């Protein structure tokens, strides 16, 4: 029997301190924490690996004779090599030299490794070939039988069907395994096309049946190892709650979480969502800047990185979930208002009171002569609009559903300008050029992320000016005069309503 046995020195539970001098590679294989190439660079002796630098390239081993191909901190796995069992016969049915139909692997009970039940399967190739798998203690047994009456071409196959190849699962928490194989007729019944069988445990993520063929005697020397996956925990026989009681030996670093892994009967660490790195390192896990990787973290708007997450606001004029997609918002009409003075300042024929009504209509979707009912009382929309701006309750007048913060901020600032333009005393209304400059500044400053400073400036102006500008007793006459002005300019109907909108 060919055996690969994992034996180590007793575990050292001393607190680990990360060293900057540690070599973290062996050949092209990374050796991350909690693993290391000596005890000073590993969490403890159970995670010490051996790098044979005399070979080219250097080879990494678990113990003295188990080749290591990959270590994943994220998945808590290690991919290692395991011997393939072969049973090859001569013309008389005698076993060929070099055949080893029985192999085993044993992991010492107090070490943090188990054979992964989710990644590995027992796999058998051959005709008239059977294989049994069990643990050393014989607490379980399983197997499969591969049968065929002619040579099989696996290149067109996508899975083992039982014809020339079969597979079966392995149980949880497996720390040792024996493979024994045989042939009921010693391959005499299929001698004309096959005289060998093979059996091995293999990682299903790397296994592709189309890469295989029925085994032949030469394979005994050429193909000796299969890749299997071991699960590992940072410490066996400890739950997360128990591990946290001793912070000096607790393995999980900053921005990481502890997970109890039943297959390994112990705990291990992983980064919190939105963080990456090695949870076993001194710095723990670090924040992912999702905005730098739009392929993995989509954003169809304005991306902002946050600790452990990111926000994606739809661009101005649209709304929705920026991570999925944005749709046009009804508040996009404010863009037209902002652009109007910039491109048409010299040709604007509306007086400022009328322009204030234009802004009011765009924001509220209501005519200046309309009324709203509040607490059973009918109130002119201009009165209600101005009061809402002063009381900072604009959301009572404007439908901000699905609007972004940027849209709401622009709408509020445009509403404050509208209040100035609605001042019934013409001398106190701002000049049209001044309105154009204010609207242009809103657009420019918000686009350059200076909204906060502009906010403070605009709020102070409005608080001072609107205090005395509105004579509530004459609101009715103001609405009448505005309507008259709009009629003179041929704008008695609704102004600039969004497509599909009606009053």
Features of the shown structure:
503 residues; alpha+beta; 6-stranded antiparallel sheet; 5-stranded mixed sheet; 28 strands; 22% helix
Describe the secondary-structure layout.
Layout: E1 2-6, E2 25-26, E3 29-30, E4 50-52, E5 59-62, E6 66-72, E7 77-83, E8 85-88, E9 102-107, E10 113-115, E11 120-126, E12 129-134, E13 141-146, E14 165-169, E15 176-182, E16 196-203, H1 219-222, E17 225-232, E18 235-236, H2 240-244, E19 256-261, E20 266-271, E21 275-277, E22 285-287, E23 302-306, E24 309-313, E25 318-321, E26 325-328, H3 333-344, H4 352-364, E27 371-374, E28 377-380, H5 381-391, H6 405-421, H7 432-447, H8 451-469, H9 475-488
Parallel strand pairs: 1-9
Antiparallel strand pairs: 2-3, 4-5, 5-6, 6-7, 7-17, 8-16, 9-15, 10-17, 11-14, 11-16, 12-13, 12-15, 18-20, 19-20, 21-22, 23-24, 25-26, 27-28
Helix pairs in contact: 3-7, 4-6, 6-7, 6-8
């Amino acid at each position: 029997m060919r055996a690969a046995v994992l034996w180590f020195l007793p575990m050292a539970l001393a607190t680990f301190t990360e060293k900057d001098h540690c070599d973290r590679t062996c050949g092209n294989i990374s050796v991350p924490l909690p693993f290391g190439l000596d005890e000073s660079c590993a969490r403890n002796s159970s995670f010490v690996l051996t790098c044979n630098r005399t070979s080219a390239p250097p080879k990494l081993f678990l113990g003295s004779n188990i080749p290591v191909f990959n270590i994943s901190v994220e998945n808590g796995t290690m991919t290692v090599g395991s011997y393939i069992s072969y049973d090859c016969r001569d013309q008389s049915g005698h076993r060929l030299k070099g055949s080893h139909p029985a192999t085993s692997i044993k992991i010492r009970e107090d070490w943090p490794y188990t054979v992964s039940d989710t990644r590995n399967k027992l796999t058998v190739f051959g005709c008239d070939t059977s294989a049994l798998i069990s643990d050393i203690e014989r607490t379980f047994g399983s197997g499969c039988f591969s049968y065929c009456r002619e040579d099989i071409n696996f290149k067109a196959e996508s899975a083992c069907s039982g014809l020339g190849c079969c597979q079966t699962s392995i149980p949880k928490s497996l720390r040792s395994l024996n493979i024994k194989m045989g042939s009921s007729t010693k391959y005499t019944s299929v001698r004309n096309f096959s005289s060998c069988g093979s059996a091995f445990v293999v990682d299903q993520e790397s296994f592709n049946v189309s890469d295989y063929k029925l085994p032949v005697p030469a394979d005994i020397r050429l193909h000796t190892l299969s890749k299997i996956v071991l699960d590992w925990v940072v410490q066996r026989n400890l739950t997360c709650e128990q591990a946290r009681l001793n912070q000096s030996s607790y393995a999980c670093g900053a921005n990481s979480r502890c997970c109890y892994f039943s297959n390994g009967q112990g705990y291990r660490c992983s980064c919190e969502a939105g963080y990456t790195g090695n949870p076993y390192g001194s710095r723990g896990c670090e924040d992912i800047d999702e905005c730098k990787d739009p392929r993995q973290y989509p954003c169809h708007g304005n991306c902002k990185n946050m600790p452990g997450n990111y926000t994606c606001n739809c661009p101005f004029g649209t709304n929705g979930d920026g991570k999925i997609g944005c749709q046009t918002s009804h508040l996009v009409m404010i863009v037209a208002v902002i652009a109007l003075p910039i491109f048409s300042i010299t040709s604007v024929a509306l007086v400022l009171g009328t322009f204030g009504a234009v802004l009011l209509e765009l924001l509220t979707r209501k005519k200046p002569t309309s009324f709203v009912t509040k607490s059973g009382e009918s109130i002119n929309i201009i009165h209600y609009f101005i009061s809402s701006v002063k009381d900072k309750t604009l959301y009572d007048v404007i439908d901000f559903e699905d609007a972004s913060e940027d849209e709401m901020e622009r709408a509020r600032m445009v509403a404050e300008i509208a209040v100035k333009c609605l001042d019934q005393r013409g001398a106190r209304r701002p000049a049209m050029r001044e309105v154009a400059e204010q609207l242009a500044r809103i657009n420019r400053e918000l686009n350059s992320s200076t909204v906060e400073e502009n906010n403070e400036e605009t709020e102070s102006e409005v608080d001072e000016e609107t205090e005395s500008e509105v004579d509530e007793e004459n609101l009715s006459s103001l609405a009448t005069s505005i309507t008259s002005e709009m009629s003179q300019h041929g704008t008695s109907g609704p102004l600039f309503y969004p497509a599909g909108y009606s009053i």
